[in-house]
Amino acid sequence: MNPFEPLFRRLRPVEPDAHFLESSKRRLLAQIELEAHELWFVKLVKHLPVVSPSLSFLQFSRVRLIERVVSTKQSLGFGLAFLKRVTASVLVLMIAVMTTLLYVERDTSVSASDITFLEVLSGEAMVKRADRLEWDSIATQTELSEGDLVRIGDLGSAVIHFFDDSQLRLDQNSAVLLERMVPSSMYPRQGVISVYLQEGRAWVQTLNVDDGETRFDLIAPHAIVSSQHASFDVSTNLLKPTLVRAFRRQISVTVRNPETGLALGSDVLGTMQQITLSDQSIRRGGAALSSFGPVDMIRGDDQGESWVVHNIAQDQNHLAMVRERELHALKASIGSVPGDFLYPLKRAKERLSFVLPFKGDALNNTIDIANQRLNEAIVLFESGDDEKAKLALLEYQNLVRQIADDSAFSKEALDDLSPSPSKLISSRVVRPHQKTLVAALPGDSSISLVKQVLDESEQLFVDDWQEKIQLRLDNGLENMTHIQDVVAAGDLETAKQLLLAHQMDSTSLLAEVESLQDEDVKKNLYAKILTVQQQEGRLLGDLAEHLVDQEDAVELSALVDNASRSLEVALERTVEVAAPLLPDVALRTPELSPTAKQVNYFVEKIQLYKTERGQHNQLSKLFIEYPETARDLTFMSTLADALDGTARVMVEDRMDAVRAEDARAVSRETERKIQRQMDLRKKREEGQAISPLN
What we know:
Blueprint: H1 5-9, H2 18-30, H3 39-47, H4 55-71, H5 76-103, E1 116-122, E2 125-128, E3 136-138, E4 141-144, E5 149-152, E6 157-161, E7 167-170, E8 174-183, E9 191-205, E10 215-219, E11 223-227, E12 231-237, E13 240-248, E14 251-256, E15 263-269, E16 273-277, H6 279-285, E17 296-297, H7 300-303, H8 306-334, H9 343-355, H10 362-383, H11 386-405, H12 407-413, H13 421-429, H14 431-440, H15 445-460, H16 465-488, H17 492-514, H18 519-547, H19 554-578, H20 583-588, H21 594-607, H22 612-625, H23 633-642, H24 645-686
Parallel strand pairs: 9-10
Antiparallel strand pairs: 1-4, 1-6, 2-3, 2-5, 5-8, 6-7, 7-9, 8-9, 9-12, 10-11, 11-14, 12-13, 13-16, 14-15, 16-17
């Protein structure tokens, strides 16, 4: 007999309440796997709770319960142990899930230094603090502050590491004053920095991007040099002119009067261009920078100078270090990426944030998730998983469009972000990643895709139409610079695609501006378009120069030539439509004779190339394209006068060759005439008949 049976038999009948009957009904109806002889039980359940179970039913239930207990082979201890293991597993799983949800997604943290410090590489360095009178001798390194003065002695060299990852490398006998060093209010990991170079030579490498405030100004007695994500050097001395050279990307040069400090004019130096400024040239030049001195190309022997070679190598080393550090920080900040085991939990948390948002957090949640997608795309591109990276990039675009288009954001959330809500949101979904791109991605096809998406996203948040046109112009110029980087990296196919896309966008801008009715707005935009077109021409020239010796770049070279011709047409059209509003443009572009126009055309084409080989090949190509000029000494003489240096010598050599060939032709004709006279005389002496034709 089962030991439990007496206990069950002594149990008193219990009348179930309504709640118990209802829950029992639901649970019993769920048990559909019944034997054929138990169908009566289903009928009974369907009548619950109207019909109460009888005493016989309760007794029958007791018997069934006893049979179940007896038929159980496992002990009670086994059941408790099993329950303990299940409970422990559930607790561990809950802890893992909660930990993952809390830490799988963190804010992006890029470990740029919070301080600016001086690192002495060799020789002696002295620092005079802003609040002290004496100089401190520095042997290794020291932290610097705004207002500090740094001097490098004989045979010395040092590097100033700024908090935004920019570097300023000082040569011997150099002195600089740190005038201003403040973080950008739009983006703390960037800075607004001004350094005054009193004397000596300094090399600057900046890794900042345009966020509306960020800039690096190196001030010399004769010039202020401003840059973003560029490399340049400046040499100055009280007894010598100031030399400014751009080695990577373009820089802005503002010429200043060394006595008054007033700005006299400004211009842009492109890659591998230089300008020399002195007191005499400034007094002679007036107020236009073009008069201060010619913008020259950096010569080959200067490029081989030990100072230049060393700093270009240091640029690469610094950039590689920053890229590795930033990418490591980016990977750590975003947690899992598509394809990881925990990535579904990360997406589950994002969906939960939309379902249960805190008050006012809907916009912030969308911005944070968009940033996650873009950061994931960058990491996936770096790891080589382009397919998943493009999907993440597409999702980022969709989220940004949602942020820009959602009426709830624009009418309610944006009103709380005065004075410029669109710009503030743009700074959160676009600008933070610009810095990451500068530091974390190499110059390959992936960065072009990301930058293109960022440029398009930034335009979505520009409310003012005129500002949007200016942004498109700036992005177009930046794209040209990026194309040069892609070509330098050897990715010619991507360069061709970028160049074609750039041409399609730039051709539509002028037509859009022409359709405007406000003449003041048109005047302002025409001036900006002319400036950008001139800068674009310089970049195309640099690109053509880079491609001249590459045998596998025939198609890209043809595209560059086509872009140059299209730019010439666009520039002429811009001058034509802008002349009524900008009289100075008309004065600067007088009507030229056909010969003068052709000479200017030859000069522009030849000066696209800076090497002797490139100019020689271009000159030969032009003479083949325009054969009537190949033997026109008057035209070539005018062309030679318009050129200088090696290009002029080439044209003069061509003229000498034509003259020599003409002289040989005249000599041959003279010899033929003499021979003919001799033949006639011989025939007369021999009494032969002479034909009238002879």
